[in-house]
Design a protein that fits this description.
Strand content: under 5%
Radius of gyration: 14 Å
Number of strands: 2
Order of helices and strands: HEHHEHH
Oligomer: single chain
Largest sheet: 2 strands, antiparallel
Distance between the termini: 36 Å
Shape: globular
Helix content: 40-55%
Number of helices: 5
Structural class: mainly alpha
């Protein structure tokens, strides 16, 4: 049975909110990222970050399987992850500035 965006949202929310990671209150953005994660799971067999270029090799892409290896430091430093899917409570409440998160993934992993 194909998972839909709402099912994925509910499942991830239950797992991530207790850890202090919230979904972006901009539901258009959140829905787009979740839909893209599901598309990538169909395409590659795993939910890799839709905001980065995946290789299709699970081992090579391990660092960008959502939640990616960069989420925690991004949210800690900027209040949001690179994709703006996961954010801090303060970010969602506009208590910290919304700035562009720089790419942490090394260029050699990105295939550049």
């Amino acid at each position: 049975m194909k998972e839909n965006v709402q099912d994925l949202y509910e499942m991830l929310k239950k797992v991530q909110e207790p850890k202090g990671y919230f979904f972006n209150k901009d539901m258009d953005r959140t829905s787009w990222v979740l839909e893209s994660l599901l598309t990538n799971r169909e395409r590659y067999g795993y939910m890799c970050c839709p905001c980065r270029l995946a290789s299709g090799d699970r081992a090579r892409d391990r660092d960008i399987i959502c939640p990616c290896a960069y989420r925690n430091p991004d949210v800690e430093e900027y209040g949001t992850c690179y994709c703006n899917l996961y954010v801090s409570k303060e970010w969602n409440e506009d208590r910290i500035p919304h700035v562009e998160v720089p790419e942490r993934r090394p260029p050699d992993k990105a295939g550049l």
